[in-house]
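Checklist before submission:
- one chain only
- standard amino acids only
- sequence pasted in full

Submission:
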Amino acid sequence: MSEKTSILQRKDVVISFQRYAIDAFGAMAQGLFASLLIGTIFSTIGDLSGIAAIGQIGTFAKAVAGPAMAIAIGNALGAPPLVLYSLAAVGYAANDAGGAGGPLAVFVVAIVAAELGKIVSKETKVDILVTPGVTVGIGCALALAIGPWIGAAASWVGNLIMWATDLQPFLMGIVVSVVVGAALTLPISSAAICAALGLTGLAGGAALAGCCAQMVGYAAASFADNGWSGVVSQGLGTSMLQVPNIFKKPITWVPALVASAVGGPVATVVFGLQQNGAAIASGMGTCGLVGPIGLYSGWIQSGIAPGPREWLAMALVCFIIPAIVSWLVAFGLRRAGLIQEGDMDVA
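Returned file contents:
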């Protein structure tokens, strides 16, 4: 056992929740952003402008989603160059085999392939053959063997959530909005969760509402501490900046959570808001305005010409409700002395 442990330590193979569920999962979301999501944005711009070349850029970017995710995961795991490059083929195979649940298949398969590749890396005199041979061979074989099962399982869970949201839009609107929104603020990737489960439709709208509520909500609730710089860093960047404050004083999270609980059912019940763009956009909130852009691209892809009702829904769910609700709750908590000056400072 000690010999096995020493090999893993020497090869930097750390089997832990932090390494896999946070580091690798978060990196996968970045890989998705740099391929599928940015490709979707280019495709939308190309469709709207009528410029075919812009749309083609989007097609190219979306086509390499699998390799981008796998390479990002390998980078997060500290894979050496030869392993990292070999993961391109593994990511393509896993994403293709996983179908609608491709991102989750890539996540599982890329981790196994990367760690095995790291173990054999530079252990022989023919490393140029052994390392990519093991990484690509085992990775692609594993993708073909379990990718369809992982993809089917992810799709089943995602479809179950979407079915439940359609069936009980009020209750599930709250649950999905709060849970996915909380994941966005915590050091967990809400974008990767939505992508892995393929959350779109009404459930995607609820997830989008929850994520926007966290980002815009924190920007408004902490305005007294952070001013306009906080609006930009949290409202367009990430509410994850508040994690240290949440650990120190959990009640500072209440305004954003309440905003998520309010925004979710407004999206699902009042407007029937469906996010039918790329699933990853459901978990991005207002980060770089990706959530609203995904919402818009979903309208275009579905053949919907957005009118006043659609724009009002976007404005209320993504910006106005999160800002007003969170600010009012924070104001009440400050008046009650439960939140003090500086408690939500991210400087």
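Reviewer check: The longest helix spans residues 127-167.
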